[in-house]
Specification:
- By secondary structure, the protein is mainly α.
- It has 26 helices and four strands.
């Protein structure tokens, strides 16, 4: 009955999604540039502006603090600090164990699930390691100066605890169908977990809200944003895309569609190959730039630390830099957002806490390593303050700004960045399509999956014709909105997570988990 009632809603939503690409009346203009501008203006006015009024409401903090502090930013930071303290700094004490779990030292035959620990991590990383690491960091430095990198790193470290808590719950409350298909994530632990503690009505509401917002976010940050931001540096190298940007969208529609039809197993198999490749290419390129300017590395860190605590404007400036760093860190690593538990729920394990520990590696790899590399390249090359790139900073063309930084060292590097940008965007889209598809199935039933995937592919086209600024704002709004129901639910269930962690850690320390080793079994260290 529930699915029958939701069918009209699904049809209506599909119609509205299609209208974003096709509807505005004056889109019929003969000039292609004019109709693309009309779509952009309509999208910004009727979608982005209205959502921003709600999500970024700051309770007048700009008047009495000197800078706007949106509720959602404070909410995410408070959640990360709470989970770090509540789980007794699992982000630090569980780091080495997470590495060993990921490489399969504790795997046992016959564990239920669809993918390995590494494949689950790769799938989640393919969604988080994306344009936020290239474009987002450049936007943060351009808007907040080098000090934004400090807050970005700090929130990344704290976010490791948020990721642990939510992904552990994703495993605890997952459902496995008769055919072996796994469904998990906030949709289930909000509904079923809160029901266990006597909050069934609240859990039902939060689960539904999360599923709907996540589905919308998959169209924004997981799709249109990736297309729009990756198109920036690529069209500079392939001028024909200036006149026909929709061609890029059509190419991605084909490449993404081939993978997402196969579900999480094909997505995981693709991600485990793409993620190491794209991270390796990008990190090595950044490392070359840093080594070529090694004398500037220490001064760059000094600028980062000084800019984090003593920027111009003192109190208001300090808060402004902090807010920028937090927003970009969360947009990059997605800690507390609730997206990653959907991928980690599919991992093969009978120990839910073990998958939460594996998941805490994501913010470290994504933010502490990859984002820091980008930030250092931007600061050392000085493109964020160079007059010739002022327009890129003003229009928040982050990927193009990073391309300029790499190009200032070697003219070939922007081509490498184009490859990295394409791989980052592609991998993010295939993983976010799975997140959105699982949420659409929760709302409308499994028969809605194909319709969802078609709408998702439609938003790839939208991303190729709407400006990066509007797409970025829409992506921020949808992704950050997911944090409200997710963090509330994870915090309410933190007692159960903490008890499960204590039991798991006791057995780990006692050697009862029996990791694999050549020649037999051996006990866990220390």
């Amino acid at each position: 009955m529930r699915r029958r009632l939701c069918l009209p809603a699904l049809i209506a939503f599909t119609f509205l999604a299609g209208s974003l690409v096709l509807l505005p009346g004056d889109v019929q203009a003969a000039d292609s540039g004019a109709w693309m501008t009309d779509v952009d203006a309509w999208f910004g006015k009727h979608v982005v502006d209205r959502l921003a009024t709600v999500v970024f409401y700051d309770f007048g903090t700009k008047q009495w603090l000197g800078t706007s502090v949106p509720l959602v930013v404070a909410w995410l930071l408070a959640g990360a600090v709470f989970f770090t303290l509540r789980m007794r700094f699992i982000n630090l004490r569980g780091f080495w164990h997470a590495i060993r779990l990921t490489r399969g030292d504790y795997d046992k035959p016959g564990e239920k699930g669809e993918v390995t620990h590494f494949q689950a991590l790769a799938s989640a990383l393919s969604a988080t390691v994306g344009l936020g690491n290239i474009a987002g960091v450049a936007i943060a430095v351009g808007g907040g100066g080098p000090g934004a990198i400090f807050w970005l790193i700090l929130v990344g470290i704290l976010g490791m605890s948020s990721k642990f808590a939510e992904c552990s719950l994703g495993q605890m409350y997952r459902k496995i169908d008769r055919d072996g298909t796994v469904t998990g994530g906030p949709m289930l632990y909000l509904r079923d977990g809160l029901k266990e503690i006597g909050l069934a009505p609240l859990g039902a509401v939060l689960a539904t809200v999360f599923a709907f917002v996540c589905m919308c976010a998959s169209f924004g940050c997981g799709c249109a944003f990736q297309v729009g931001m990756s198109l920036g540096p690529i069209r500079e190298k392939i001028p024909v895309l200036d006149q026909f940007p929709w061609v890029y969208g059509l190419v991605l529609i084909v490449l993404v569609g081939v993978v997402i039809i196969g579900g999480i197993r094909r997505i995981a198999a693709t991600a485990e190959k793409i993620v190491p490749l794209m991270c390796g290419i990008y990190v090595l390129t950044c490392a070359f730039v840093l080594l070529a300017n090694y004398t500037k590395i220490i001064p760059a860190f000094e600028m980062i630390i000084e800019g984090a605590v003593t920027p111009k404007g003192m109190y208001g400036g300090f808060l402004g830099v902090m807010v920028i760093g937090i927003k970009r860190a969360v947009f990059s690593n997605e800690a507390g957002i609730g997206s990653a538990p959907i991928a980690h729920a599919a991992a093969k394990t009978d120990e839910p806490i073990s998958e939460g520990i594996v998941a805490l590696l994501e913010p470290f790899i994504d933010t502490v390593v990859v984002c820091t590399m980008t930030g250092l390249v931007i600061v050392i090359t000085g493109v964020h303050v160079a007059p010739e790139y002022a327009d890129l900073v003003q229009t928040e063309a982050g990927a193009s700004l990073t391309a300029a930084a790499l190009g200032s060292v070697n003219s070939f590097f922007p081509w490498i960045l184009c490859l990295a940008v394409f791989l980052f965007a592609y991998s993010t889209m295939i993983s976010w399509s799975y997140y959105g598809e699982r949420c659409s199935a929760h709302l409308f039933g499994h028969r809605a999956s194909l319709i969802y995937k078609l709408v998702f592919l439609g938003f790839i086209f939208l991303g190729s014709i709407v400006t990066a600024s509007n797409i970025k704002d829409f992506a921020d709004l949808m992704m950050l909105s997911m944090a409200f129901p997710n963090i509330l639910g994870v915090a309410l269930l933190s007692g159960k997570t903490r008890r499960a962690l204590n039991d798991y850690w006791r057995r780990y320390k006692a050697g009862e988990l029996e990791p694999k080793a050549k020649g037999g079994r051996r006990k866990a260290e220390g």
